[in-house]
Amino acid sequence: MNTPFALDGAVRLTHWGVLRARGADAVKFLQGQLTNDVVALGLSQVRLAGFCSAKGRLQASFLVWKASEDEVLLACSASVLPATLKRLSMFVMRAQCKLSDASAELQLWGVAGGAAQGLLEGAAVWDKREAAGHTLIRWPDVAGVARCLLVVPDADALPAVLAAVPLTPLDAWRLLEVRSGVPMVEAATVDQFVPQMLNFELLGGVDFRKGCYPGQEVVARSQYRGTIKRRMFLFDIDAPAVPGQEVFHSADPGQPAGLVVNAAPQGDGTGSSALVEVKLSALEGGELHLGAPTGAVLRPVELAYAIPTDAELPAP
Fold it and tell me: CA–CA separation, 310 vs 200, rounded Å?
């Protein structure tokens, strides 16, 4: 398959949206709702975080950063933003925190390759910088390709910093997102996964030392009682794949063995790469198939990080 890892350019991230939490209690409010520590988040840092149901199932996943000490921005899939905003707003009550959809005010651009490297100037992964009225966030590299998120407070104009940067197709950028192994909860996968099923704690998206949040007991129990029986892995497939699509194992075709989390077409247009949550037992032999027991075969691809066994998980 033709995988465009030579990508060098920028693209408007129309599949992302931005939530804003503003007010004296914004940080405190989010601290009680998200899986990660917002209080300890520095102004030059970005963190992954999840918003769970009481049953510990992810309703949304975010990139979280502070615009100031009383304003927090949360980038997430545009497909889950309206429902997430509504649900979070139910818990604000008397807190001095106003939640809003800031997607119409802030442009999100993905920049990759040499174009990104020129902007980053040695920034570490998940660092955040403010310059010339925009925010720059370094994402993890993919196969040596640098990536960054550019946040610009102007919903209409092309950012001046990108004036000389070639534009690239959104599908090419989404392929890099998938190959990075960093998942995004989309509308088709809401309420399907506890954070560990998406390797969220391996990516720094869960803080087990912070205070309570919805679903915390379920998430902690999964971590410390050896009950993580499903994980997310990366696959190449000779067929199109979509989030929420089931996968089946050749030895047990009567029931799904997993679910597609995120997917993007390969450069040749005939196949795809996909992050797939799957039963660990289904990886011990046989084949996984997309959509049906007779569907296209999933071919495993090495992730950029290791998946621990239950024995390797930290003690409480």
Answer: 15
3-class secondary-structure state, position 120: helix
Q: 1-157+166-225: which CATH number, 3.30.70.100, 3.30.1360.120, 1.10.3720.10, 3.20.20.140?
A: 3.30.1360.120
Which helix (DSSP H) or strand (DSSP E) does residue 172 occupy?
helix 170-180
| pTM to 2 decimal places | 0.94
Q: Domains of the chain: which residue ranges?
A: 1-157+166-225, 229-303
Report the amino acid identity of residue 211. Answer: G
Q: How confident is the model over 125-180, as pLDDT tens digits?
A: 999 999 878 999 999 999 999 999 999 997 677 888 899 999 999 999 999 999 99
Say if residue 191 is exposed, middle or buried (CB neighbours under 10 Å; 0-12, 13-18, 19+).
Answer: exposed
List Cα–Cα distances, 304 to 7, 45, 175, 203, 264, in angstroms.
18, 21, 14, 11, 17
For 229-303, CATH gives: 2.40.30.110
